[in-house]
Amino acid sequence: MFKSPTCTEADKKAVEALAKVAGVEDVMALGMEMFTVKSAVDGASMSDLVFRDYKDFDMNGNKVGIGQLEVVDLSILDKVKDGLKAKIAKVKGEGRHSVFLLLTDIMKEGSEMLIVSDDPAVVEKAFGVKPDGDSVWLPGVMSRKKQVVPNFEKAFK
Q: What is the DSSP string of 40-54?
């Protein structure tokens, strides 16, 4: 749906060409359908959700885990949010300085970040926004690779 900061003009041209080959008339409708399927959480374990798109990073000698769940509407995750928080706390307890889980709302173009950290102030240092307890809303943040990891790398120095 071309909302990610990682999306390029080449991506858009490729979608246009492939849509013709596949006979897809409305690529935005297909994109919405794909994200709706990707947003499904029913029947998934907390571990499956946390590790669906998760990576560990070395941030100046600190092991930091960052996961991401992309959904079309954050309310989809309301019923599992407490379970997600408990799971990332457990993952942090396995020898990590911090674990952050991005709950990315594709339509609102932002992410709620769930936070479990030895130093939660690193979030404010990285993004200029003070967390509200164990989470923070990050408007415009959609890409772990381009927007989250670089900010944390600077904050952990």
A: --TT--HHHHHTTTE
The residue with tokens 């900010």 is 151
Q: From the CB of residue 7, how many other CB atoms can be counted at a distance below 10 Å?
A: 14
Instruction: Say yes or no to pLDDT of 58 above 70.
Output: yes
Contact, 39 vs 71, CB < 8 A? Answer: yes
Contacts of residue 103, defined as CB under 8 A and 6 or more positions apart, other chains included, come to 69, 71, 74, 77, 81, 84, 111, 112, 113, 114
- The β-bridge partners of 8 are none
Q: What is the pTM of this model?
A: 0.80
Q: Residue 95 burial by CB count (10 A; 0-12/13-18/19+): exposed, middle or buried?
A: exposed
SS3 152: helix
Question: How far is the C-alpha of 7 from the C-alpha of 49, rounded, in Å?
Answer: 24
List the domains of the chain with CATH numbers: 9-38 (no CATH), 46-155 (3.10.310.20)
pLDDT tens-digit series, residues 23-50: 878 877 777 666 666 656 778 899 999 9
